[in-house]
Design goal:
7 helices, globular, binds S-adenosylmethionine
Length: 277
């Protein structure tokens, strides 16, 4: 992973670390996600996925993994943060073969207003749409996604929840040469406003606190399904992550469900399709 060294002598420290490289190594699995989304697209439409829009793309890791997977795959990544997109150009895109790079476009803009060529799938990962705090804002975004899709195109948003999500907590995860902490700092049951942060801890004892800070509304699955329908999506459904009965942990496999499992924490995708008209 760019910027995260593998050798013990090169382990990052708070002084040398690149927070985008740490984030990508810690919380993303872009190649596996790109394969999974292509499989779901084929299941739903009977067609191979060749045109993808990654909203809130950040470092554009998913869009890059997607263009790597097929010589005809094209992607557009949308984010409003110029500095993060500059990082994506100098790291993620720079690591691509020129032929792959030519098939990946980055657009700086707001996901609600940016205009892009029609795609077969729009995807927003790692709960980024939770920056929208009102139904009106989220519905406006979902309508923009529908406009961005070809007829029959698919929208995927991920979601997480469960009783434990309402409690303050810090989960520590080990990664290559560093640990990362997922910190649920505050949750308000009235507004569903949630304050989440990512911190990093390094092997030399140094720390990078509040490397990423999120002020989100924790949207619930029934609200998301209703808003998808209000924005004009058909076939709206949920795919919930299968939990291993042995470890109690998510397996990375998702199953379409009409009735979900009330795990203490769960991860799911909400899926909707633009009609053929
Ligand atoms: C949690 S990061 C997501 C990074 C990546 N998509 C992932 O899966 O890990 C959220 C990103 O959304 C961007 N963002 C927030 N609001 C936005 C908006 N209205 N339009 C476009 N980008 C936005 C931020 O600049 C940031 O890069």
């Amino acid at each position: 992973m760019a910027g995260v060294n593998r050798g013990r002598q090169d382990w990052p420290t708070a002084r040398t670390a690149d927070r985008h490289a740490l984030y990508t190594a810690a919380v993303q699995a872009p190649a596996a996600d790109a394969r999974q989304f292509a499989r779901w697209h084929r299941q739903l439409t009977g067609r191979p996925l060749r045109r993808l829009r990654e909203d809130f793309c950040g470092t554009a890791a998913l869009a890059a993994a997607f263009v790597r997977q097929h010589p005809e795959a094209t992607a557009v990544g949308v984010d409003r943060d110029r500095d993060t997109l500059a990082w994506a150009r100098s790291h993620t895109l720079a690591a691509l073969h020129p032929a792959e790079r030519a098939r990946l476009q980055l657009r700086c803009g707001d996901v609600r207003t940016v205009r892009t060529a029609p795609v077969q799938m729009v995807v927003a990962c790692n709960f980024s749409y939770m920056v929208f705090h009102t139904r009106a804002e989220l519905r406006e975004y979902l309508r923009a996604c529908r406009r961005a899709l070809q007829p029959g195109g698919v929208l995927l948003l991920d979601s997480w929840g469960g009783g434990l999500v309402h409690r303050p907590c810090v989960e520590r995860h080990r990664s290559h040469g560093f640990d990362w902490l997922w910190h649920q700092r505050r949750f308000d049951p009235v507004t569903h406003r949630i304050d989440c942060r990512i911190h990093f801890r390094f092997r030399d004892g140094s720390a990078l606190d509040d490397a990423f800070v999120y002020d989100w509304r924790l949207w619930m699955l029934p609200e998301l399904r209703e808003l998808f329908a209000e924005a004009g999506f058909d076939g709206v459904h949920v795919r919930q992550e299968v939990v291993s009965p042995r470890t109690g942990l998510g397996t990375g496999r998702f199953r379409r469900v009409d009735r979900g499992r009330a795990d203490p924490t769960w991860h799911a995708y909400v899926v909707g399709q633009r009609g053929r008209r």
